[in-house]
Each structure stands twice: as C-alpha cells, then as structure tokens.
Amino acid sequence: MSWPDKSGGAGLSHAEARALLATHGPNELEATRARPWWRTALEVAREPMFLLLVGCAALYFLLGEWREATALSMSVLVVMGITLVQERRTERALDALRDLASPRALVLRGNTQQSIDARELVPGDVILLSEGDRVPADGVLIASGNLMLDESLITGESLPIAKQAFPGVPPPGTAPPGGGTPYFVYAGSLAVQGRGRALVTATGARSEIGLIGSALNTIVRERTPLQDATQRLVRRVAFGVLGMALAMALVLGFTRGNWVDAALSAVAWAMALLPEEFPVVLTIFMALGAWRISRQRVLTRRMPALETLGAATVLCVDKTGTLTENSMQVVRLCMPDGRLHGAGAGTLDHAPDGDFRELLRVAALASPLEPVDPMEKAIQAACQPLGCATRPAGWTLLREYPLTPQLLAVTNAWRLPDAPQAFVAVKGAPEAIARLCRLTPAQAARNDASINLLARQGLRVLGVARASVAAEALPGTPDGISFEFLGLLALADPVRPEVPEAIRRCALAGIRVVMVTGDFAGTALSIAREAGIDAQDGCLTGAQIAQMDDTSLCERLRGTRVIARAVPAQKLRIVRALQRNGEVVAMTGDGVNDAPALRAADIGIAMGGRGTDVAREAADLIVTDDRFTSIVEAIAVGRRIFANLTQACGYLVSIHIPIAGLCLLPVLSGAPLVLLPIHIALLELMIDPACSVAFEAEPSEHDAMRRPPRRQRASLFGDAGVGPAVGRGLLILASVLLAYAWARFEGAGMALVRTATFGMLIFGNVALLLSHRAATRQAAGYNLATWGAAAMALALLALVLAWPAARDLFRLALPSLNQCLAGLALGVATWAALALLLRLGTRPGALHVVTRA
Known about the structure:
The protein is α+β, with helices and mostly antiparallel strands. Helix content is 49%, strand content 15%. The strands form three sheets. The protein has an eight-stranded mixed beta sheet with strand order 8-22-21-20-9-17-19-18, with helices on both faces. Strands 1, 2, 3, 4, 5, 6 and 7 form a seven-stranded antiparallel beta sheet that branches. The chain is elongated and about 120 Å long.
C-alpha cells in the first residue's frame, strides 16, 4: 500500500517502544473495579426490606405454614439474585467500552509497517489508517489522503468529518473532540473513506474515550425516591409492629396465664400488621411493568427506573436518529437566479425538471459510483427516480480530483464516448465552487443571499458546477478549469413525522424536552422549530457552557431547550445541573460519549437500533426502534405504574386495619380469639393477588398525560397521604365489628360468631376492591383482574364453608340462609359507603397522581 508523500519518519524503534510502554502502560482502559459478590450480598442482607422478608419467612416456618414459608424464602433469594445481577450489569458498561479498542493496529516501527496488538501502542507511535479501520488511539494527523472519520461515538455528530494533515510541526496533544477540528483523530472513531498517518499522542485512560470511561467508573447510582420511601415505611412499621406484638404477648400471658393463646394472638397481630406484601407488590409491579413497557418497544434493564419515569420533568434527547430520521435527504435545489425547488418540509415535494434536474444530475456525476458519505448517498437517492444516479452508458471516469484542504470540493472528469471533450462535474463547499466559477460581484452577492437563506433553515449546502474540457488538456488541479455555476443543493436529516405530536404530548404532561446535540447551532435551532420544541430562549452552545461555572449553568438551564456543540463532559454537566435544579432527568443517547450522562441521569435511555454496547450497558431502558414516540409511551406507562402502585399500597393499609383490629379485640375485651393465624394465612391468599395483579392491571386514566409530573418525593399513598386509606380501613373494621356484635347479640356460638366476623371481613375486602373501580370510573377500559380477584375471594369463602373438613380446620360453622343474606346486605352497604367516601374525599385520580410542587 502506498501512503501520502509526507512521511512521519521511520517511527519508533523497538527499544523506544518498549521503554515508552513501560512508562505509559498498555493502551487499554482501566479494568472495572469489581466488588466481591459477598460484599454486595451483605449490603442487601442489611436492608430492612430484606430483613422483613426473612422475618416473615421465619414466622411462617414457626407456624408450620411450609408453603408460605417456602414462597417467602424464594422471594429472599430472588431479591438477592436481582441485586447481584444488577451489580454485574454495571460492570459490563466499562467492559463494553474496553471492547471498542481495535484488537490490531498498523504502525511504523523501525521504518517498517507492522501489525501489532493495539495494547502495545504508545505515545510517539506512527499509526497507519485506511478505510474500515477503527482508530486505536488519540493522535494528530501528519498525512492525509481524502481521509474521513465517523466520530459519532465520541462527539455525537452524525456526518463523517474530513481530516487534514496538521500544518507544520505536530503538537504534543490533541484538541477536544467536536467543534470541527480537522487535524486530530480519536480512539474509537471509524475511518469511512481515504487513508492517513497519525502520530499517537494519548493512549489508554488518557485518551478521550479513556476519560469517558473514567467518568463512567466514578458515577454511583443513587436510590430512587420509591426505594427510599419503601425503606422508610418498612423500617418504621417493622420495628413498631414487632414491639407491639411482644407487648401484647406479655400482657395476655401475665393477665390470663395462657401463654399459648398469648403467643398465637401476638403472632396473628404481627402477621396482620407486618406489611410483607410491600416488597412482593413492588417486585411484581416492576416485573409486569417491564413486560407492559416492552410492548412499546422499550426494554428494561433496571427495574426502579420504571416508577421514576412517571416523575420525569425533563427529557434530554439527541437530535440525530431520535428526533430525525438519521438519513440525509436532498430537500432544496436553488438556481443561480434564486429560484427554489422543494420549498416544503422534508424531501423534495415533486420530481425536479429542467435546470433543477440538471443540477441534480451533475451533483451525482461529482460523486463516487458507490458512495460512503451520507450526503453523496442522499444525492444518489434523489437522482434515482430520474434515471441519472448511475454512470451514463458509455461514459468512463477519466480522472478524480479529491477533496483537499486548499479546495473543499470533489471533482470528477468523465470521458464521453466518441468525443474529444471531457465532461467535468464538481460539487463542494459553496465558497469553493464560487471561486472555481469566478462569479461576478453581483452573482456572488445573489449566491451568498441564497446560501444564508438555506443555512438559516439548518440545511447543509453544497455548490454544483460543470465544465467541458479537452480530454488531453485536463490540468493537474481543478483551479485551471473554467466552470459554469449551476446552483446550490441543500440537504437535511428530516424530523420524524410523528415527533411534533409526541413533543406536544410532553408539553401537556408538563415535561420539558431539551435537545442536546453535537451539531451546529443553526441546524439545532432549525430542527427544534420543525419538531415543535420551544426555542424562543435561543441556543446554548458547548463553548458557552465551557465558560460557565455550575451556578451559572444551573440558572441558564432553567429555560433553555436547545443545546448545540455539546461535548461528552458537558453532557454530564448538563444532567448534573438539571438535577441540582430539582428536575427528574431522563436522558437519551446512543454513543460512547453519552454513557456517563446516561449513567448519571435519573432515567438513562439508550437507543437499541444504532446504539453502542457502552450506551446500552450504562442505560436503564433501551428503545429498540429508536423512535421518540416510544419514549413518550414509556413515560405514560411509568405514570400508570406509579398510579396503580399507590392504589395497591392504600388497599394494603386499608385491609390490614380490620385484620389488626380483630386481633386486638381479645386484648381489649377479654373475649376469645376471633382470628387465628390460619385465617390470616387464608386472607393473604386473597390479598396478594388483589394488590399485585388486580391493581397492576388497572388501565391508565384518560388524562394521565395531561397532568404535571408528580413530586419527586411523592408519598407511596398519593398526595393525600395515608389518611384516606386509614379511614377506609376503619370503615371496614366498623362493619366487621357490627357483624361480630350482631352475632354475639343473637347468642350464637363462638364458631358462628367467628364465621360472621370472618365472612364480613372477606365481604369488606371485596367491597374495598370494587369501590376503587366505582371511584375511578374515568379510567379507560375495564379490569377483569379486579372482578377475578373478588370472585376468587368469595369462592374461597364458599369452599371453606361448604367443605366440612375445611370448616372444622378453620373452626367455622355453616350459617343459615338468613344469616348469609344479612351479611351480603351489610357487605353491599359497606361497598356503597366506601365508594361514597372515595368520591367525596378526593377528585378522581388524585389518590395516585399528584401535582408537582
């Protein structure tokens, strides 16, 4: 292979390379500092939620309830396993980042080309790059032959960057990526065209990709508000209940002398009040939520992110591929006299003809037959319907004039069949084409006005020209050819058609969409306006961010919705600043440069279609179809999850109050035990599916995405807190005590009293379930799971009463028809009272979606 004439010397000698390798270390990222699994397991075991699960399992074992004990023990193992797996997933982000390094590198060593392990590269090495190579280290170009690099992994810029050799003596380091620096190459970028030679300036952790890895390794995920709220609730209730249960056992033991009954009462009391369902409900809600959200083409990598979605207040999105199609398209054609074709948004509105057709045809002839550059692909695609995208019959490529630092244009000279003249087509930077065409001042002024008009629309503009030259008289450079100016061609990455409506939904939901891109400010503002993002506060650029301290950045970000030319470290600063402003930040990304920000955000969302392994491993959610609308739908599902979770938590509090009240009844009245542990175990069979399946299946309310996000530290019980749930529980307790008093007044035996009380408790449970449906009629659709849970509870009660062996086991009696009808009437009255209480106490939906403070 021949390389550009500018050599870089003989490269390092083998001895110099070995010495530098010992000094700088291998060219690889720092290994993930993995914690021992047992240390993670110990931290999990100290969590109150974990201790509560272990304690409940031990209680069931002591009672001989092997099925429940085994189920809770399995829950213990599941909680431990999920945490250990998540710890390993965190480590994989850096593993994936290290895997981006090229396994081999072509270098000059001792004036000879050698293919070496990329780990052995050192500063001072001369690396040789050609099309398809992954750049193995940061460096400065000392020779370039039409080299173009895809740096999207590092900068987020969608288009390849044309690279040039550094003029003069190469500097000892590189400039930061982005900003259009043409002289430097960065590890992890990909050569898509041409060839070059670079002097290595940084390897391993000192490279730009290494700095990203270091930032990724230092970010520690914080617990979500839901995890904190659950931890506080479980800790308070657990210690309080265990203390009260012990006190109950002592009081009953000393006052009655029957320590067995005292122990049973204390155990029943503890089982009645211990909220062992909370961790189970959370796990099931998150698992089923992950399944539901997958139907929106969003995969869940970190379960707590699902509930955080509902609290998101700011959604930071990339431009390319998320808001746009991620495919360049020709959208405007402009004649030298200013006439425009394709004034509408998106692609050309109809097939061009006449001069416009010729402009496209010549632009295609100035492109390679098999283009790599996205803009050249777009030109070919626009020409395809016109039949001028391929080489005309009999035409042969006579000569190529590549892009050079002196002339930012690509020129192709074609030999026509049976003709002495060569047809020369050129396209490139408008100013370069204007110089080749030697425009008059008036023509140049008119051309500049057209360029400015197109640039203000965020379009990438190319000039196009043609010439006819004797084939034998082709000069060494295009500067010697007299060209005819044909006009301008403008390209854009169009906004996805569904994006404006999705952004409008975000605005209605109180979610601010902030576009963070590595692209130029003009392009960013144009795309923002087309997408429907309010950009009246202008655009904040990476250069401006670099001049701000954290306080100034926080203040500026309160109203900013468009950020352009952002580099990786700035994306991380942006996320941190928004969080300091009290925002709950969802951040999208797909490249290596996005990984630290994805990890630091409250919800990191990676693009699965075009995203890198690094971004996917650092994120909480993965959007498999890369569509912005999928993210919005996922937020709606997140709001539904938390809304239904608050209903389930309120239900758990309400249903535990009458159970605890009946367990306390013997202590206060001296009456025999009404509820035994076996009754509570049966109730758990009704409560668990009700709160974990029936409430989870509740459909989203029709106006869920027309309310502001809930407060970040919102209560598990909604804006009204636990008070309404306690009130509903006391109402059920009152009806249960009424049934108990009525049975005692009728002079029934203890078995029939227990039957009336236990039956009314189950009726109250069913009434509580159905009252939630009656009070939230504005929810879209019907929930068969709720009716199924209610039917199951009544069926279990009927089975126990009808089956003599079960009736004896539960120490119940068969009630008469009149007694059944009276209990049913009291249950219906309880349902009506609960529904009325829910209606009067709060507006529909306020139980579980609260206004953000």
